[in-house]
Structure formats: C-alpha cells, structure tokens
C-alpha cells in the first residue's frame, strides 16, 4: 500500500514522463521539451493565461498538474476553485477553495469566492461566515457587503439584509445594487413610498438605468398616482421599447388613459 507522499512522487514521475512523450505535439505548451525537473511556475503561468481567456476547462488540467508538484500553494487552489465555479462544478470549487483557505487565512479573494459558491449552492449560513471573514480582511469592499446581504435574504432574515443594504448605501452612495435590493424588499412589504424614494435616487446616480423608470411607474401605479405612473411608463418605453415588459406596459398605459379620462368626466359632472 503506497503512502500519500509516495503516491504523489509516483504521480510526479508519471507527469514528467507523460510531458516528455508529448514534447513533439502541436500544442503550445507541450511543444517545449521538458526536462526531468518540471517547473511548477511554468504550469501555473500557463494555467493563469488560460483562465484569463476564460478557457477554464483547459486551465484546470494545468492547475492540477501544478498541485502535483506543490500542494502548499494557496493561489493554485484558489484559481482552480474559480475555474470549477465558472464551469458550474460547485462541490469541486468549494473543495479547492477550502484547501486554499486552510493554507492562507488572510486572502480576501479566497473567502469571497468561497462565499459566492456557498450562496449559489444555497447554503447561506456558510456563505455568511465566509463573507464576514472577507469583510474583516477588506472592510470597505462593497461587493462582499452586498453579498452578505443576499446571504441573509436566503436565510429569510430580511431585517438584517435591509440593515446591511442601508449601511452600504451610507458608505458607498453610488453602489446601485444596494438601492435595488433594498427597494425590492420594500416592494415585497408593500412599502411603495419608501421604495419609490430609493428608485428615484437610482435614476439620479444613473439616468440611463431604464428599469428604474419601470420600477418608479409601478410604485406610483400601486399608490394610485395614475398620471405620474403613465409618464414614467412612457419614459421606460422610450428607453427599452423591445423589453419583455413592453407589452404589459402598453396595455397598462392604455388602461390608465381610460381611467384618467373616466375620472376627468366624473369630476366635470
């Protein structure tokens, strides 16, 4: 029975021999003859280049080969985990990222990426722990704070999520996602006036955010402010005439037009 260290030495030998046999192939990497001592940095560099080109499947092979030569490099496990995440292989991604975290407890990206994987895997409690650790490392990172809010939403802790989004709005007033998520929660609670104020702030920050016109119109519609709602529905169609909600908006505008006309007649009687 081979011990673990012996197994890895055996795999290293297989790797070296395999690469030497393939040294005459047409692939970019294997076209360079390998010496007996394969440099892990060459494998890492090739993997990083493939990852930067979104060639995640190809990059994984090089990261795995690099790990055979050095099992103590947290960056290799981190990048391997990111590649697995992009391919939808969440369990493999989590396993690689957890190994990276064990080797380096001070890398923000490792804990942030691990939190994203747990969030996608719908395990919010673990995601929360990862995001908290990431925020301890980078307290001003808006993305980590935002995803911490999303994790609390998954735990049905809307009050906590609302507080996190508001804190993010206070500290990063141009971070639109915080406004949008808090507005969504407010609308679910039928607090349309509060949501309306936030959506108007969104449009001040980014006047080209077309969805904001629809959201404002919807809030005004719910509040019974038909004339204003119709105006914002019209602005939405001007910005996004081909949107999936365009047909609904046109039908709603026509209904509001009739309601407005009817109310005008009644007021004249």
Compile the SSE list and pairings.
Blueprint (H helix, E strand, L loop, with lengths): L3 H18 L18 H13 L3 H14 L4 H13 L3 H14 L4 H13 L3 H14 L4 H13 L3 H14 L4 H13 L3 H14 L4 H13 L3 H14 L6 H23 L1
Helix pairs in contact: 2-3, 3-4, 4-5, 4-6, 5-6, 6-7, 6-8, 7-8, 8-9, 9-10, 10-11, 11-12, 12-13, 13-14
Brief digest:
The protein is mainly α and 269 residues long. Helices cover 75% and strands 0% of the residues.
Overall 3D shape: elongated
Write down the overall mean pLDDT: 85
Q: What structural category characterises the helix and strand content?
A: mainly alpha
SSE string? HHHHHHHHHHHHHH
Number of strands: 0
- Which CATH architecture of the domain at 192-269? Alpha Horseshoe
Q: Flag low-confidence runs.
A: 13-37, 264-269
Helix content: over 70%
* Annotation field: number of helices: 14
Approximate strand percentage: under 5%
Whole-number radius of gyration?
A: 27 Å
Name of the CATH superfamily of the domain at 192-269: Tetratricopeptide repeat domain
Summarize the biggest pleated sheet.
Answer: none
CATH names the topology of the domain at 192-269 as Serine Threonine Protein Phosphatase 5, Tetratricopeptide repeat
Task: Please identify the top-level CATH class of the domain at 192-269.
Answer: Mainly Alpha
Separation, N- and C-terminal Cα atoms: 98 Å
